[in-house]
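hiii, so i know i said id send this last week but things got crazy w the move. better late than never?? heres the sequnce for the chain we talked about at the cafe, plus the structure i predicted for it. fair warning i was half asleep when i ran it
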Amino acid sequence: MESPPQRKEIYTYKAPWTVFSLAWSHRLESSSQFRLAIGSYVEQYNNTVQIVKTRSVLEHPSHAYPTSQLYAACEIEHPYPCTKVLWSPEGGGGASNFGGKDLLATTGDYLRIWSVSDDGSGKGTLNHKREAILNNNRNSEYCAPLTSFDWNEYDPNMIGTSSIDTTCTIWDLTTQTARTQLIAHDREVFDIAFSRGTDLFASVGADGSVRLFDLRSLEHSTIIYETPNLDPLLRLEWNKQDPNYLATFKVDSRSTIILDIRVPSMPVTELEGHSGCVNAVAWAPHSSCHVCTAGDDSQALIWDLSQMSRGPVDDPILAYNAEGEVNNLQWSASQPDWVSIAFLDKLQICE
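okay and structure toks below
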């Protein structure tokens, strides 16, 4: 049987709302080539998280090969837009007290843990259940919204959250309690990311600093970078192949800052290929020197940083044009040939 012709593939899913948060599942399924979670951005209390999968469809009887289509396998009601969604890392066997369940987490007003499972209908649809809601401030009727979180790949019982109340909290999913909460910045914290291993994490915030923390000695933190005018830093991504490198970007900025934690205070390079504000950055999961950026100019750009120690990185090696401002971007760790982007009401998966 001849194989279908090789071509660059693009899959598009149209949601009933603006897509903001998205995440690739780490579990590979025989029944579905892709599985992602996407979160809505609707300026009201009622929001939604959908689990999107692929299924094979023979579009016409005369077609030789079936095509894959994305469909919503599950819909979860979510209060407020979720600021981030992540599937459980598969390292270490998963979070220990959930019995191998298929987990995802979301942040918004609180940190929530959800499980999904096949609903037995044979239609490829899923049931969902809220497994936990984690709140470290039970004495107050108000909560400080969570801006982001990261799920530790080496200890899936550990999640770190960042909040507008200047704190970061490290949660233990086994006990569903906070291991530690610390004042991380002088103003709102916008993002948090674990390094390789279980000890180091970094955060960025409205005070314009990147701060490095070690869970073994939380009395001290290290400011590894501050923006010249203390402009807020929005996002932070740690290079998982070479944990000396971090990527971040400022609010309303067209450039992405690459930092080497061994050389504090000076960016190694700045990537300046966008003509609109950068909204997202993701390192390649399988390469230490490739990074993807996306922004308001409707572009996703892939950069090769292998020569950045010798001079500026002027041009991306690949540019993808979307049909609208790109809100978010994720590079699949389990299928590293694929990148997903969110723009307008669409999720797009690109090879």
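btw The CA atoms of residues 303 and 316 lie 4 Å apart. thought thatd interest u
miss u guys!!
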